Amino acid sequence: MPESKYKCIFCGSSKRLTKEHILPKWLRNYLPVNDHRSRHVVSSLDGVGKRGKLERPGTMFSQTLRIVCADCNNGWMSLLQLKAKPILSKLIKNEWPLLSQNDQAIMSTWAAMTTCVAEFSDQHTATIPPDHRSFIFQTKSVPQDWFVWIGRIGKESTPLFTHINHFGAKIRDSLEGNEVDFAFQSTCFTIGHLLIMTMTSTPSGLFNEDSLKIEQLFEIFPIFPFKSIVVHMPDKVYDEDGFYEISCVFARMLGLSTFRFDKNGNYIKLT
């Protein structure tokens, strides 16, 4: 097979790259046909926010990026989608099954894989280190410097929407008396009634331990690192305003500018 001038973001292969869906097409079968309110916000360290590349005609489930090889796309990534499907299909319909440690491992790995793909919609804010993507490819699990949470969004009477809010930046800060360059990203996305939040900073130490416990600020469950079996759905159901509160929490801790779309689709700066 001819080589591509670009390499697969996961395995590093130079084989011809294929189009990978940001969110899998099968999810459309579990959402209303009128779920077309896709929003994509990208913010960076220089205080500039903009509509992301995924803010274009078509639902979020039709958006693709040519960044992975066929072996990854049709191999382990497809298998992970199959493993996640029985869990995801319930959560997006607001049905919360008991989530075992294995279920949470599958969900968190799926969330990490999806985050790695989605951040390449804007090369300037793609900050996840290559060795993290390689780790996911090799181990089919989440690197240790990651955090993943899930929650509920969208009341039954509220139209569902699909949002992705991504922050990516290189930040210089002190760690144990030394100046260190941190690679930071946080990504929050919604699918049906499911909210998923991922965050990583490399090396670790950008946030103190208490700052990482955002489940104490919001009613969302941490699923990586694993803490406990999830035995019930959270009582709190967030709306669009709540989505932006959660998705911007780490960026605000770092003093980054935050942006959102208002209910009329206008792009506005929050902080």
Secondary structure layout:
Elements: E1 17-21, E2 38-43, E3 49-51, E4 64-69, H1 70-74, H2 76-91, H3 101-118, H4 130-139, E5 146-153, E6 162-175, E7 178-191, E8 194-202, E9 221-224, E10 237-238, H5 240-247, H6 249-253, E11 259-261, E12 267-269
Parallel strand pairs: 2-6, 5-10
Antiparallel strand pairs: 1-4, 2-3, 5-8, 5-9, 6-7, 7-8, 11-12
Short overview:
With 271 residues, this protein is α+β, with helices and mostly antiparallel strands. The chain has helices at residues 70-74, 76-91, 101-118, 130-139, 240-247, 249-253; strands at residues 17-21, 38-43, 49-51, 64-69, 146-153, 162-175, 178-191, 194-202, 221-224, 237-238, 259-261, 267-269.
What does this protein look like?
By secondary structure, the chain is α+β, with helices and mostly antiparallel strands. It has one domain (17-269). The chain has helices at 70-74, 76-91, 101-118, 130-139, 240-247, 249-253; strands at residues 17-21, 38-43, 49-51, 64-69, 146-153, 162-175, 178-191, 194-202, 221-224, 237-238, 259-261, 267-269. Strands 2, 3, 5, 6, 7, 8, 9 and 10 form an 8-stranded mixed β-sheet that branches. Helix 2 (76-91) packs across helix 3.
